[in-house]
2-deoxy-scyllo-inosamine dehydrogenase (Streptomyces guryensis), 334 residues
Amino acid sequence: MTGAVVIEAPGEHRLASHEPRQPEAGEALVRVHTVGICGSDREVYQGNRPEGYVRYPITPGHEWSGTVEAVGAGVPAALVGRKVVGEGFRNCQVCDRCHVGETTLCTSGYEETGFTQPGAMATTLTLPARLLHVLADDADLTAAALLEPAACIAAAAIKANALPGERVAVVGTGTLGMFAVQFLKAGSPAELLVVGTRPDRAELSRTFGATDFRTKDQELPDDFDVVIETAGSRSAARTATSLLRRGGRLVLTGIPAPGAEGLDPTDLVVRQLEVHTVFGAAPDAWAHAVRVFGAGLLDPLPLVTHELALDEFPQAIELVGSGDPKVGKVLLRP
């Protein structure tokens, strides 16, 4: 069946029939292979996504992979038949932020696939072709569906600029944390520490390249060069900062709930810490993620624990919010 998930309003969804929208000039029509579900999709369903960052009714789905079926005028015909992933931010391409490549900071306002524009929880997705990133012909499209969160971590890795031989750490052991381990491992660190709340993630962390694993209530070092924080918990940013040497570099990617512990500005200044943040992924980060994936340095499949059909969307959303440590990445197959 050709269908699409439509969230009419918070807590209300239906499986609707789906008619592919033929691509207009500059667009491409993609047949969706796999779509991932993340916490922000659950926010859309529950109705607690921040105001201005969702528009109902909406077909969700911003983490996806697929194959180009058709292109509009002005798009290279050679794209047809290629495996692709795609950026979510629908940037304007003409403001000053877009011109310097900071497309997630587009001054024309927020528009994103799966939140304000139709997403990939459907048989097909039509979007601007300039947002596509082409994969190798033998790429695993199931694994590639996780390249959106990987691209966000690629952005963090670019900002962290970890050099070979540096001592690096990751705070958080979810999907983003495990991607951060893989990106940092690819840079040949001297040490790679993972800090989390789940001891059951120790083995997977080491599989991806960690040299040490500790829970945050254990004794932690304070002399690392680089820390990437991915947890988004109340105390994660402060824990990440405590791991750094003077002059160390911190990249925050987690988005905590209101009331999170703040960073001490005196500590930041006296220790001369560099603090960077990431929200979404610009084109250079996407290109980096696709390149690292294509080189075999990124293995998303061990993070996938569930694959369901599109009409099992309610079960998938429940799994994502269950808090069950046995639930990793949940994928849907349109």
User: Anything to note?
Assistant: The longest helix spans residues 147-160. The chain has two domains: 3-146+300-333, 151-277. Residues 71 and 221 are 53 Å apart (CA to CA). The two ends are 9 Å apart (CA to CA).
